[in-house]
Amino acid sequence: MASLREATLRKLRRFSELRGKPVAAGEFWDVVAITAADEKQELAYKQQLSEKLKKKELPLGVQYHVFPDPAGTKIGQDTCAQPWRSSQFPLPVYSSQEEGNGGSTLSSLQCLESLCGDKWNSLKVLLIHSGGYSQRLPNASALGKIFTALPLGEPIYQMLELKLAMYVDFPSNMRPGVLVTCADDIELYSVGGCEYIAFDQPGFTALAHPSSLAVGTTHGVFVLHSDSSLQHRDLEYRQCYRFLHKPTIENMHRFNAVHRQGSFGQQDLSGGDTASLPLHNEYVYTDSLFYMDHKSAKTLLDFYKSEGPLNCEIDAYGDFLQALGPGATAEYTRNTSHVTKEESQLLDMRQKIFHLLKGTPLNVVVLNNSRFYHIGTLQEYLLHFTSDSALKSELGLQSIAFSVSPSVPQCSSGTACVIHSIVDSGCCVAPGSVVEYSRLGPEVSIGENCIISSSVIAKTVVPAYSFLCSLSVKINGHLQYSTMVFGMQDNLKNSVKTLEDIKALQFFGVCFLSCLDIWNLKATEKLFSGNKMNLSLWTARIFPVCSSLSESVTASLGMLSAVRNHSPFNLSDFNLLSIQEMLVYKDVQDMLAYREHIFLEISSNKNQSDLEKS
């Protein structure tokens, strides 16, 4: 762990030296591209990138782009139709045809060529997939997973800066091509003082991390060419015979993907999402990011041009990597067990991609001293930020990060975490909870295992296992506020097809139908936004719209308190939005201005403290 922490801190220091300064040729990425689900999300990402560049939080002289998926979740407005109870609001219109991150990769390549012309064949590109609305981590829904705040740095690092820091060594040891990664995972690794990871081989090159077989069932698994003469080292370059996408444990054994841990000696492989292995156990090598050289990227781009926009969901890992290596077969093209939507064109498209890429080498960079962490759910978020997790130690995460806050209580299971917030000395935040971008006044008590995001709270008890996140919304030119609230165990993605079935939905562990009675709301189609065959907490119009941020928080906490105490709370007096609609009407500029006000107040407080100390 010591070598991993040391290597991580070195990368963070190196990136810190590059922030706000022009980078030399070959020193950093030529292009950093972030994908977005649609034009609305594209605009939000561009606004945040612009703010970061203005404040010199990113290296300069780099092309930063946002590429929306042309066939992603399209959001427009039908000003003729009117939503429930709000004749003043235009009604959002939704469609949901998706290309998946494979289609998003292909359309991004087309955007690159369009922007850079022939120059793109000499560029080193980092492509970060960050499309989607983060239903499993809703505090990232409005501004994006890649802009999730971390309890680290001054000013606060977000996932974008961490990605750039952890990959800071890659560009100088890479041939022109595209490195593909996701916005909600973290790869930490150590390769020894004199070594570096090189991306200089033809075809595709992927990182591989030792993992338990259970973890392998939810990741991609590499079947490596055997090499009995190879000594296990922190860094190994291997060839992949075949790539398995989310295989069963039986298939891992069947295709010889399983290794014995004994050869690692006493090396500690526990800690990350990718490993928790007793020394006698078996393990596999799982995937994270991958690189494709320019020739391979051009092959995919030419294919995309000939096919046009895709009408099915293609996965960059499952559909690209499974076609690679000498042992690849077309068998996977018929397996739809991990497909969210089985379109009629999917099998045909998969087979075309298989034949396009078959024979292309898949090089594997085996990182035996590495960790892979996923922070894409509420549970993962709380685990890594508040418990004594390996990530907290390896990355140097703080309990109080760039905040004005009293010391936070600790217990055997962990601590509270306060990020970019102002917390009054009379406020109590229980262990296991995270507060970000918020102002908490005196006589506020936050229960354990809560997430409080972008909120202003005064004289309130927030019950344990609560999620609270406020958004600025602009409707017909008027700035207003709405706060989503629910229980940490609630499933926002769980949906039913008919009004009769909404009793299967739960809000804070209570039958949703019972909640509607408490709130004086009727179960009609108008209660839900979007697709009327997909009724869920995500699309339920139950969140009050108010003229101030604090009023919005108070109203939403009132509806939660009513459910917990089984006492009436009349929501029919309010204009109401669903979470889905909040994201349509969100006012990114106002949310960023709110964060900037907190930033300036924290900075002023810190400057005053420094003066008093001197």
From TrEMBL:
Keyword rRNA-binding: no
Protein's GO biological process: GDP-L-fucose biosynthetic process
Lineage: Eukaryota, Metazoa, Chordata, Craniata, Vertebrata
Alphabetical list of PANTHER family matching this protein: FUCOSE-1-PHOSPHATE GUANYLYLTRANSFERASE
InterPro entries: Fucose-1-phosphate_GuaTrfase, GDP_fucose_pyrophosphorylase, Trimer_LpxA-like_sf
Name by which UniProt lists this protein: Fucose-1-phosphate guanylyltransferase isoform X1
Entry's Gene Ontology molecular function annotations: nucleotide binding; nucleotidyltransferase activity
Gene3D superfamilies, sorted: Hexapeptide repeat proteins
Ligase recorded as keyword: no
Keywords assigned: Nucleotide-binding, Nucleotidyltransferase, Transferase
Domain of life: Eukaryota
Any Pfam family hit: Fucose_pyrophosphorylase
Domain GDP-fucose pyrophosphorylase: 117-547
